[in-house]
Amino acid sequence: MTHRNSFLIVSLVALAACTGPIESQRLASSQQGIIDGTPDAIGVLAFLNASTTTFPMLDDDVALDRRAAANLMGYRAGADDLLGTGDDKSFQTIDQVDDVKWVGPSALNKLVAYAKAGGYVPEGEDVLGVYDNVAFTVNEANATLHFANFEPHHVLDHDIALDRRAADSILAARPIATVLQLSQAYFVGYSAMLKLREAPKPSGAADGETCKEHGDCLSGLCVGLTMPFDAWCAPEWMANEFTHDEVVDIPDGDPNGLVLKADFSGLGTVPVDVILYLEVDHPHPEDLLVELYQPGGGYEVIWDHQADTPFMNLAGPGIERDNMANGVWTIKITDTVPGNAGEFGGSMLWLSTNMD
Hints:
The chain is α+β, with helices and mostly antiparallel strands. It is 26% helix and 24% strand.
C-alpha cells in the first residue's frame, strides 16, 4: 500500500460539574459520602460536639435547614433539652448525625465545608486519632492504609512480622477504608497497629493528595491530568485500559463504518481522563469520522475529517463526567468518502475514574 500512516492520539476531556476528588478519597475510595474515621468525619463530629457550637451558628453560619439545626442541638441537649446538664450527649459516629431528622447529604456537605473552614478537619501532620493505643497523624494514616491494602501477604506476615492471623485478616478485609476499620480487623491490636505504622513505606503522595504526574503517587495513578483543575492520586484500580490489536480494513464509503467495543468494569462510577490512542493507515485522513460513545449516552466526535493528523484533541462535554464509566464504550470509524480504502491498525482506550 502507498497509504501514509496516521497515528492519532486523542485525549478526551470529560467536562463536568464536580471539580476534584471526593474528600473521602483522602484516606480511601468509597461510594459513601462521609465514612467514620476519615478526617472529614472526625472534623464534623468535633465541630458538632464543641461547646462553642450553637443553634444560631448551625442555622445561620452553616446554613442548615432550621429544623436540622434544632434537632442537632436537641440531640446534644438530651432529654431535658438543656445544654450543660447531666444528660447532655455527644455525637460518636456520622451515622448518629445522619439519623437526626432533617439531616441528609446536603446538610452533611455543609457541615464538612464549615468544619474545614473552622480548622476542625485534621490534615497533614495533625493527629487523626488513637487506634488500639497507637496514635496516627493524617499522613501516617494515609501511608499505613496504602501499605495495608496493597502489600502482599508475605510482607505483612514475614517482613514486618505480624501475627499470621492478623495478616490473613487484613487481606480478607481489603479494601480497608480507614485506620479505624483496620484496627477493627480480627487479630489486629496494639502490636500490629504499631508495626503497620512504623513499617518502611515507599515514597510518594497518598490517595487524594495532589499530583502532577503518575510517578508522584504511591499508587502510580494520578487522576485528572487532562482536566482544568488539580489532579489527585487515586488507587490503581480506578484506571484501566482496553486494547484492540487486530489489523482490520476500514469499510470504504460505508456509513456503518468499523465498530469497536471496549468493555470496562470494576472502575469508579464516572470518567475523568479518557484517552484514546488510535492507529490508522489511510491516504486521506480527511475522509474519516471517528466517534466515541460512552455507556449511558455520552457521545463525542473526536476526529471530524481533519486534513492534518492532530497530536492531541481535547473534547468538549460530549463525554459526560457525571455519566457512566463502567460498561461498553464504542469506537466508530467511518470512511465517509468512497474511493480510497484505509486500514485500522490498533487502538488503546484508557480511562481514569472518580466516585460520583
